[in-house]
């Protein structure tokens, strides 16, 4: 598995803030398996130095990812990818609520799925 600094790239000229670019790239890496659960990330200072970013930029990205449950800080041991993807739990809950609402309205699975597909369009 490649080091975080090797594949993480930010563009100062992009319209999205640097912390958000970091945040979304880390989320994508967790989802596609480049960062597996339990992986230790570089410290805020290490990553900021590798990428030529302000410490506060990296700290904000890490803070937001920790608040979302994607990362966890273990004191002086560092920052790690969480063992559970918070999207799994959130999406499972949303799906259960959707199915319950559909059933209460007498909507069958195929019709309910059409609602989901149209919401994505």
UniProtKB/TrEMBL annotation:
Pfam families: GntR. One of its GO terms (molecular function) is DNA-binding transcription factor activity. Keywords: DNA-binding, Transcription, Transcription regulation. It comes from the Bacteria. Residues 16-84 form the HTH gntR-type domain. Signal peptide: none annotated. This is GntR family transcriptional regulator. The lineage of its organism: Bacteria, Bacillati, Actinomycetota, Actinomycetes, Mycobacteriales.
């Amino acid at each position: 598995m490649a080091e975080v600094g090797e594949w993480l790239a930010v563009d100062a000229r992009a319209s999205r803030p640097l912390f958000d670019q970091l945040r979304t790239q880390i989320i994508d890496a967790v989802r596609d398996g480049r960062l597996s659960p339990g992986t230790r990330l570089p410290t805020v200072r290490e990553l900021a130095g590798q990428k030529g970013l302000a410490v506060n930029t990296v700290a904000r990205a890490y803070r937001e990812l920790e608040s979302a449950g994607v990362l966890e800080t273990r004191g002086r041991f560092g920052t790690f990818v969480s063992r559970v993807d918070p999207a799994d739990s959130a999406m499972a809950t949303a799906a259960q609520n959707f199915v319950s609402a559909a059933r209460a309205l007498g909507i069958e699975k195929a019709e309910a799925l059409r609602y989901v597909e149209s919401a994505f369009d």
